[in-house]
């Protein structure tokens, strides 16, 4: 997606070896116009999949996921990372190990908000090691749903996430695919 790649080139900052900081439009400050274009692009790519619901993880997945759900005219549910006061015990949980932070978190979805038989589209801001998407897959499976694919805003193809999902035949649509960081610059995979 050209608009997104241009924005990454303009505003993205490479941090260390393998992290891209995009807090001016995605991870802290959010650009609603760009998020709307992203949501429309995901909706277009998954148009034939009869999606019933969009699933993401708080917090940075929510902005692109909300616009995707709007464009598909379906509900969005985001997995919570912390148990909220009002969450019931009737929920699905999955472990998500963060290689970056070297800690395991739980993600949680109330059973009322994901129904057996539904066709689910997963959305996330980054695909790095794939652990967040794996956690969502685990929950979607436990709930007896079908995952139609994963819409990823920014994929880092040099990390292991894609392989993990390919092994499970999960369709991935990534809008910007980063091949490498070279001397603080972003190198994209050629667009298909
Ligand atoms: P994984 O889900 O692909 O396995 O990701 P990993 O454990 O490597 O990363 C943990 C957190 O860091 C995730 O956010 C993930 O989205 C984010 N992340 C991974 N690579 C990058 C990157 O290059 N740039 C930025 N900005 N973030 C990256 P999270 O902890 O779930 O946080 P939240 O922002 O969604 O609240
Ligand atoms: Na995320
Ligand atoms: Na994040």
TrEMBL record:
One of its GO terms (cellular component) is cytoplasm. InterPro entries: PRTase-like (IPR029057), PRTase_dom (IPR000836), Pur/Pyrimidine_PRTase (IPR050118), Xanthine_PRibTrfase (IPR010079). Its EC number is 2.4.2.22. One of its GO terms (molecular function) is xanthine phosphoribosyltransferase activity. It is found in: Cytoplasm. Coiled coil: none annotated. Pathway: Purine metabolism; XMP biosynthesis via salvage pathway; XMP from xanthine: step 1/1. GO terms for biological process: purine ribonucleoside salvage; xanthine metabolic process; XMP salvage. Residues 36-159 form the Phosphoribosyltransferase domain. Transmembrane segments: none annotated. Belongs to the purine/pyrimidine phosphoribosyltransferase family. Xpt subfamily. Converts the preformed base xanthine, a product of nucleic acid breakdown, to xanthosine 5'-monophosphate (XMP), so it can be reused for RNA or DNA synthesis. Homodimer. This is Xanthine phosphoribosyltransferase. It comes from Weissella kandleri. The gene is xpt.
């Amino acid at each position: 997606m050209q608009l997104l790649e241009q924005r990454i080139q303009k505003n993205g900052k490479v941090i260390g070896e393998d992290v891209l900081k995009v807090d001016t439009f995605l991870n802290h400050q959010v650009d609603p116009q760009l998020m709307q274009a992203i949501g429309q692009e995901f909706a277009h790519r998954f148009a034939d999949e009869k999606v019933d619901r969009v699933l993401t993880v708080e917090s940075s997945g929510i902005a692109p996921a909300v616009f995707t759900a709007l464009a598909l005219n379906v509900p969005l549910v985001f997995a919570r990372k912390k148990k909220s006061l009002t969450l019931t015990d009737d929920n699905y949980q999955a472990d998500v190990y963060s290689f970056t932070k070297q800690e395991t978190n739980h993600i949680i979805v109330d059973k009322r908000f994901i129904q057996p038989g539904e066709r689910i589209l997963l959305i996330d801001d980054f695909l790095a090691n794939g652990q967040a998407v794996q956690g969502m897959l685990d929950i979607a499976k436990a709930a007896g749903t079908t995952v139609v694919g994963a819409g990823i805003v920014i994929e880092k193809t040099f990390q292991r996430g894609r392989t993990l999902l390919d092994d499970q035949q999960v369709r991935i649509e990534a809008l910007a695919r980063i091949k490498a960081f070279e001397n603080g610059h972003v190198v994209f995979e050629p667009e298909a």
